[in-house]
Amino acid sequence: xxxxxxxxxxxxxxxxxxxxxxxxxxxxxxxxxxxxxxxxxxxxxxxxxxxxxxxxxxxxxxxxxxxxxxxxxxxxxxxxxxxxxxxxxxxxxxxxxxxxxxxxxxxxxxxxxxxxxxxxxxxxxxxxxxxxxxxxxxxxxxxxxxxxxxxxxxxxxxxxxxxxxxxxxxxxxxxxxxxxxxxxxxxxxxxxxxxxxxxxxxxxxxxxxxxxxxxxxxxxxxxxxxxxxxxxxxxxxxxxxxxxxxxxx
Length: 249
Hints:
The protein has ten helices and no strands. The protein has helices at 2-23, 31-58, 67-79, 85-97, 138-145, 147-161, 163-187, 206-211, 218-223, 239-247. The longest helix is centred in the N-terminal third of the chain and has 28 residues, at 31-58. The radius of gyration is 17 Å and the shape is globular.
C-alpha cells in the first residue's frame, strides 16, 4: 500500500504543477487570491507537514492538549498531498536512520532523480513495519488505504464552491508545498552552516527556514530530533515551534 501511495503522490505533484502553470493564463492573481494562496500554503506545509507529519507523528516531540485541534491539524496533514502519515513517517524515519548513505530514501548525493520525488521508495522494496509499529492503528491504516479519496473529496468540495477557490486554496498551495519540500531535500544536506558535528551532512539553511516555517535549521534538528524546536541560536526563528508551544500539554 505504501508503494502505491508513493506513485500516486508523484502523479499529484505532476498534476498540481501543470494546473498551476496553466492557471497563470486563466486566473487573476489579485491581492486577495495571493492571501488565500499563502493561507493554504501555511496550512498544508506548515501545519500539515512541518508540525504534524514531521514533529508530531515522526518524532513524537510533543503531545496535544486538545483533541479537536489534533483532528483539524491531522486533516491538513492528510490533504497536504505528501502521502499518508504511515508512508511519510516511514520514509522520514529511514532518512534519519541512514542519512546521507545509499540507504537514505532521498539522499540527493546518490539519488539525483529523487530531488523532485523524494517521497518515492523502490517498487518491490520490503516494508519494515517495525519502523512504524507505533503508527499501525486503524485510523492510520484507513487513511493509508483510502488516501487519494480524501484528496479527491476535498478537491470536489472546493470545486463545488468555486473553481477559483480550488485553484488558489489547493492547487497552487500544493504545488508550492511540493516545491519547497523538494528544495528542502536538495539544499539542507548540501548548503549552509553547522552548529553540531553530526554523523551526516545536515546543514542549517536560512532560506529553507524562511519558506518552511523553521524546518531549515536541519543540522540542529539532526543533532536532537526529539526536540520540538529546531532553534538553537537566538536569531534562528522557528515559527512551527512557536505554534507547538501554544497547543502542547
